[in-house]
Amino acid sequence: MIRFFRLSPSRLALAYVVLSVLMLALFAIPLWYAWRANLSTFRAYVQGEDLQRLVEAFHSEGAQGLTTAMESQARSLPRDEIIVFADASKLRLAGNLTAWPAEVPDAPGTYGLVIGLRGGSTMRVVASHVTLPGGYHLLMGRESVRFESLVDRFWYGLAGAMGLVLVLGAAFGWMIRRALLFEVHEISRTALAIVEGDLSRRVATPSGSGELHTLAQTVNGMLEQLARQNAQLEGEIAVRRQTERALHRAHDDLEGLVTERTAELARANESLHRTETYLAEGQRLSHTGSWAFNVATRQIVHWSLEHFRIFGFDPEHGMPSFETFRQRIHPDDRAKAAEILERAVSERTGYELDCRIVLPDGAMKYIHAIGHPVFNASGDLVEAVGTVMDVTERKQAEDALYHAQAELAHVTRVAMLGEMSASIAHEINQPLTAVVNNASACLRWLAAQNLEEVRESAARIIADGHRAGEIIGRIRAFVNKTPSRKDWVDINETIREVIALVRSEVYENRVSLQTQLSDDVPRILGDRIQLQQVILNLIINAIDAMNGISDAPRELLVGCAKDDSESVLVAVRDSGPGLDPGSPDRLFQAFYTTKPQGMGLGLAISRSIVEAHGGRLWATANESRGAVFQFTLPMGDGRAS
Question: Around Cβ 144, how many Cβ atoms within 10 Å?
């Protein structure tokens, strides 16, 4: 038995395959028997002579003769026989069945079938199907119980063969397992002896060339090598002692190197400390602090000393929370700052922010912050770093530069009115002349005792006086040196007021002035006087540009409408000589002018006023001829005019 289990598993598996093939071959005997029995059954149950006789009757007497013959024959047939004659559509013509069985295949041949009878009963038959000329069908057969027993015998034989194959598989599987474990146990016992120090034992080498044979040879080879290594162990110990001494020397050298590197690191730290000191001093002088912010936890991870100083926090108290830092932002700017920060985080981009902060003592500062995203190796946004600059002094300087621009704008307005003095005098002279004329008429009507005419003349005197007063009031408001004040301004009404001021200038220069003022233009948040100055300057420049035109109409169009960018667009179009293609941008530079007596400040001041209102002023060529000066103003909250 031990010798048997030392057979290789591959040989045992081959033996199992051979036996299984023999068992399945034995299954061919009942199959052959069933085939022979089934063939003899077909021959015994279907009489070829009877079927041939019916076929000959069809050929000699036709379908009608076969029908008559089968009807007489069907009355004498036993109950276990069937005969049916049908036309091409399988409609029954004669026989002992009420209809052509639907179970019969369309192709001619002999079949074992189960057909339905009257009352829902069935019959197992062996029948032959013959097709005749003209598409007629003939079926003849007999009930078969033996056919069913043959089928059962087939399945019993198949089940028996498979059962034997499974039993053989289980037996041979057990034997293969014992064969495998036998050699493994041999190797385990040898390994245990090696652990206990017995190096003389060897693993029995199994026959064959399988994996266990190779493993046994490998273990035996390792044992031989281990024995040789024991002889070399003493020499290796000596080498190890020499190595230990060399390691001690290397350790001493390493300590010296560490001491040297420590001194170098101290010098580097001192240099870094000086650099940090210089950086802190530079931040202090430029009022710029640095920071770092963890996007995931919403925690501040770094603030420079200058950052602490700008926001009024004490570095000794540690890093403030994000909410405490947020409270230092001016209440009116917190929502804007939060929106910009959240948008930068969601879009994974940098940002710039200008806002105000309020210190605990009530002092207010203006700051300019710049943020930049930081990504990890996976491309995830982890931090935001950047700088914050105290721009309070710069803001104050800008404001001072702006109270200076206002002064210059006021001087320009006065100078402009000085140039228009003749037109203004003519404009005021009209209502005053009317007052004098109406007063003379009033005296005449008084002398004539016509009180009704006197009343009408007095009313006209009052109306003309009011008209003169309105002109003087507009001029006074335009010239007054008042601080800038923004309010909701009707831009269409502002244009009309300016046109009233330049009406005489328009008439004297024979200019055709038209307006296109849209009714749905909302009110603009701005300074009405400053916007009047911009519109007046553009109209006066257009009139001056058309003075040299004598061979074409002098046309001036002032328009106002909403554009596609949620802004109000004001345009002044003239039919003058147009713009110099080489210097369209120089028109807005200070002290640049194309007029002989011009100061070169009007367009520069106009652009600064428009930009201070959040808009833009530019010039382009007109479609037909001349130039177009236009500017945009933001609509604010869109209050209707």
Answer: 23
Structure tokens at 468: 């003169």
Q: Which tokens in the block code for residue 151?
A: 């089928």
Structure-model confidence comparison of residues 61 and 423, the more confident one: 61
For tokens 């931040």, the residue is: 283
Would you state the pLDDT for residue 586?
A: 58
Q: What is the mean pLDDT of the chain?
A: 75
pLDDT (tens digit per residue) in 325-335? 888 889 988 88
CA 172, 175, 179: angle at the middle one, nearest 5?
135
Which residues make up the CATH 3.30.565.10 domain(s) of the chain?
Answer: 486-641
Burial category of 106 from C-beta neighbours within 10 Å (exposed 0-12, middle 13-18, buried 19 and up): exposed
Beta strands in 506-581 (DSSP E): 512-517, 524-526, 555-562, 567-574
User: What is 486-641's CATH superfamily?
Assistant: Histidine kinase-like ATPase, C-terminal domain (3.30.565.10)
How far is Cα 320 from Cα 326, in angstroms, rounded to an integer?
10
pLDDT at residue 641, rounded to an integer: 39
DSSP track, 110-133: EEEEEEE-GGG-EEEEEEEEEEET
Picking from 554, 552, 534, 533, the residue whose alpha carbon sits closest to that of residue 543 is 554
Q: What is the pLDDT of residue 145?
A: 60
Alpha-carbon distance of 446 to 438, in angstroms, equals 12
Q: What is the pTM of this model?
A: 0.41
| Range in 28-32, 296-300, 487-491 with the lowest mean pLDDT | 28-32
What pLDDT was estimated at residue 463? 63
pLDDT-derived band at 560, boundaries 50, 70, 90: very high
For residues 541 and 581, is the Cβ–Cβ distance under 8 A? Answer: no
Kindly indicate the confidence band of residue 638, based on its pLDDT and cuts at 50, 70 and 90. Answer: very low
In this structure, what DSSP letter does residue 585 have? G
CB atoms within 10 A of CB 55: 14
Which DSSP helix (H) or strand (E) runs through 390? strand 381-390
Mean pLDDT is highest, among 129-138, 177-186, 631-640, for: 129-138
- The CA-based diameter of the chain, rounded to the nearest angstrom, is 164
Write the DSSP string, 588-603: GSTT--SSTT--S-HH
* CATH class assigned to 287-390: alpha beta
142 in Cβ contact with 47 (< 8 Å): no
Answer positive or negative: Cα dihedral of 166, 172, 178, 181: negative
Distance from C-alpha of 194 to C-alpha of 199, rounded to nearest angstrom: 6
The angle, 0 to 180 degrees and rounded to 10, between the axes of the packed helices 28-45 and 146-195 is 170
**DSSP β-bridge partners for residue 618:** 630
DSSP code for 329: B
Q: What residues contact residue 196 under an 8 Å CB cut-off, 6+ apart? A: none
Nearest to 571 by CA among 506, 507, 621: 621
Contact 16, 168 (CB under 8 A): yes
Which letter, b or e, does each residue of 309-324 get, where b requires 16 or more Cβ atoms within 10 Å of its Cβ?
bbbebeeeeeebeeee
Domain with CATH 3.30.450.20 in the chain: 287-390
Alpha helix positions (H), 448-577: 451-479, 491-501, 503-508, 528-545
Mean predicted confidence (pLDDT) in 330-354 = 87
